[in-house]
Amino acid sequence: MSRPDISTQVHEAVAALHRGEVIGLPTETVYGLAADASNADAVRKIFELKGRPADHPLIVHIADASALSRWASGDFAVAKKLARAFWPGPLTMILPRQPSVPDAVTGGQSTVGLRCPAHPLALEVLRAFDGGLAAPSANRFGRISPTTAAHVREEFGDGVAVILDGGECEVGIESTIIDLSSAIPRILRPGRITHAQIEAVIGPVAQDQDQHSPRASGTLEAHYAPRTPMLLLPRAALELEATQQRAFGKRVAILAIDALPPGSTGAVLPADAEGFAHGLYAALRQLDAGDEQLLLVERPPEGPAWLAVHDRLRRAAAGAGPDDDSP
Ligand code: TXA
Ligand code: MG
User: Which of 62, 134, 258, 312 is disulfide-compatible with 37, CB 3.0–4.6 A?
Assistant: First the structure.
């Protein structure tokens, strides 16, 4: 049987959304689990599927910046500058919410997260749906975000009827989140769009996390984690560590930059930050699916371009381990 053409798929996805169902939606960052953001019952289904605590807020995806005032309130001068520079694209803005936004979406907070994704299928769905789509990454809570439609199917099986296949996500890690709801803009989660790129558009931006920033589940220390225990190591230490672990009888896989050390098995990622981010989650999933008992991951270089990758690797290492140990 041939696959239905794209417009039929989009039509089916939009019909499912109007019925209050949850769909798998490709974006340029990672795949999302999307539902009608104005329908609290539909949004609750996302939390059930993910196994995510109900007070964790979701990002609302919109077709363009003209929808900002439908979801957010206040002065949009800064938000509009950022939208002009980076939307559609991997930047989520936290703004004071409109009172009409369901608490199921905002986790009861006074703010809402908004993003216009740069993926042709996502934009087609958003335009045809003519509303906002609440969508977290389409993984079970605390686990590795999906970057292909097959990953979403692996996570949820038949629990999600419609999963749109938009190919591999180009960015591969989640959007940069910037909080614009208080006096000084603050980056809550690093991503492809860097601190310096944002400062070039709107001036000074804070980057450190603080106790008072709104709750963001992507900022929990253990997150994005494989089930196999994982260690981050400098290149020079990979081979010796692997040899020693094997001497203890452990099955070891290595995730290395450019090339695997001689005699080892595992996967390889590119030496540039964007290429590394693009392939990171798929590689972690692939290695996690094998029967290795330990993943050794080469620590990438430092520098602003690598900040988001370091953030995800640190959390993955902190959260790695069998389900019953995870947060
Ligand atoms: O790239 C992305 O952002 C992907 C794709 C699907 O768009 N989505 C994504 O969603 O990563 P999720 O739910 O896995 O992560 C969104 C993060 C969470 O950490 C959530 O707590 C935070 O955004 N967030 C959402 N609304 C917020 C708000 N009002 N205040 C603070 N953080 C918020
Ligand atoms: Mg997530």
Answer: 134
